[in-house]
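Before the break, one more example. Copy the sequence into your notebook; we will annotate it together after we see the structure.
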Amino acid sequence: MMSCNRYAAFPLVAIFVFGLAGCGSGANLGELDARLQEIKARPRGRIEPPPEFKPIATYAYASHQLRSPFVAPMEQELIAVTDGRKVEPDIGRPKEYLERFPLDALKMVGTISRPGGDLEALISDPSGAVTRVKPGSYMGKNFGRVKDVTEAKVSLVEIVPDGRDGWVERSSNVTISE
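Here is what the structure looks like once it is written out:
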């Protein structure tokens, strides 16, 4: 048989009795019901509708037809259309070695000539390799054709875009570097 300690059950019984005693007073519940009825009887608030937004007018971007701000403006003297022959680079021609480099990366380091031959310029590329050029040779990225070689400089004519789907000639020089 089970033996039960009569003092061990006392705390449980006390909690149960005090819990029932709190539910017994009906006066507080009536007051609470009256307060709830008063709150429910009040007029309810109205939520304002969201404001109507006016549509923003669309903008048609048309500036793509203008000159890019990252390209320098062309001078009017360079753009002049030449009368007579049309200037175009020979794109089908095989490229020469010095056409791989921009003209400002090339340096003239000297000249050389054979007995009875034309004067040739010695041009150094960025890697330090030296190449001989003579009139008729090509160098630079802008289809630069060598016109004349002297002791101090190489004169050439480049064919550059004119900015209006055409080409113009521009003279350039590569001078000897000390």
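The chain has three helices and seven strands. The beta strands are 107-113, 119-124, 130-133, 138-139, 144-149, 153-161, 167-175. Try to locate both features in your own notes.
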